[in-house]
Specification:
This protein has about 240 residues and is an alpha+beta fold. The protein has 8 helices and 4 strands. The chain has a 4-stranded antiparallel β-sheet with strand order 2-1-3-4. Strand 1 and strand 2 form a beta hairpin. Helix 2 runs antiparallel to helix 3, helix 3 crosses helix 7 and helix 5 crosses helix 7. The longest helix is centred in the last third of the chain and has 24 residues. It is globular.
C-alpha cells in the first residue's frame, strides 16, 4: 500500500464478544456517492436541519445521512452496551481499545460526519486526516484549537482575513450541535437498536463540552503550556 493510500484510508474493525467481527473502511477525500435505493431517512427534506444551507429541490440527499448508511446497516441488531474490541488502522499505525459499542460508534460517527461533505461539519475535515480514535475532551479541545488556528495562519499567509478571536469556531460548534440534533432524529427512524443513536449522544456531549470550553474558558489547557507562560514572564 502506498503512503498516500495509507493516509487516505481509515479501517475500523469491531469484535463483539463471541460474535462475528464488524468492519468499516472510511476513505478520506471522497464524498459518499448516493445510492439509487437509499432509504427515506437519508433524503435532505426528511427532518432537514433548520439551518441547513442545502436545497432539497437541487440536492436529493443529506450528505451526513448518506455517510451513515453503512454504519447503520453494520450495527443493526447490536445494542450500545455490548462490549467490543476495537482495532483502528491508519497511517501505518494501529490503535486498539476494549470499550462499549456506543463509544466505538461515537468515534466512527465523528469521523463520518467530518468527511461527509455536510456544510456544517467541513471545518472538522482536516482533523479527520489525523484521526485520533476515542479522544478525550481535553484532547479534542487541543486538536480543535490547533487545527483552527493553523487554518487561520494559512489564511493570513494568503492575504485573507483571519479569525484569531475564535468567533468562527464558536459559531461552527453551535451549528454542529444543531446538526447532531437533526441527525439524531434521522437515526431514531433508521436504527433497529440504539448503538448508533447512543454513539451520537456521546458525540454531542463531547461537542457541548468543547463549545463550553470555547465560550467559558477556565484554562483547561493552561497546564500543558507552562513553558510559554514562563518564557513570557522571563522576558
Amino acid at each position: 500500500m502506498s503512503l498516500d493510500a495509507e493516509r487516505q484510508i481509515i479501517h475500523y474493525r469491531l469484535e463483539p464478544d463471541g460474535q462475528e467481527a464488524l468492519e468499516l473502511q472510511v476513505r478520506l477525500g471522497e464524498a459518499c456517492a448516493p445510492e439509487q435505493n437509499s432509504p427515506e431517512w437519508t433524503r435532505l427534506a426528511f427532518q432537514q436541519c433548520p439551518h441547513c444551507p442545502l436545497k432539497a429541490e437541487i440536492q436529493r440527499d443529506c450528505p451526513f445521512a448518506l455517510a451513515l448508511q453503512k454504519l447503520v446497516r453494520l450495527l443493526a441488531g447490536h445494542a450500545s452496551f455490548e462490549a467490543v474490541e476495537v482495532q483502528v488502522r491508519h497511517r501505518g499505525r494501529e490503535v486498539r481499545q476494549h470499550t462499549s459499542l456506543q463509544r466505538a460508534a461515537g468515534s466512527l460517527l465523528g469521523l463520518l460526519g467530518a468527511t461527509s461533505g455536510c456544510p456544517h461539519t467541513r471545518f472538522l475535515e482536516p482533523m479527520a486526516w489525523f484521526h485520533l480514535p476515542f479522544s478525550s475532551s481535553d484532547e479534542t479541545l487541543f486538536r480543535v484549537l490547533g487545527t483552527y488556528l493553523l487554518g487561520q495562519h494559512l489564511k493570513a499567509q494568503k492575504g485573507l482575513s483571519a479569525d484569531w478571536q475564535l468567533e468562527g469556531l464558536r459559531e461552527s460548534y453551535r451549528n454542529l450541535r444543531k446538526v447532531n440534533q437533526g441527525i439524531a432524529k434521522r437515526l431514531q427512524v433508521a436504527c433497529n437498536e440504539d448503538s448508533s443513536l447512543n454513539g451520537l449522544v456521546l458525540l454531542d456531549l463531547l461537542a457541548a463540552d468543547t463549545l463550553y470550553s470555547l465560550e467559558q474558558s477556565e484554562g483547561e489547557l493552561d497546564g500543558y503550556f507552562s513553558w510559554y507562560c514562563d518564557a513570557m514572564i522571563d522576558v
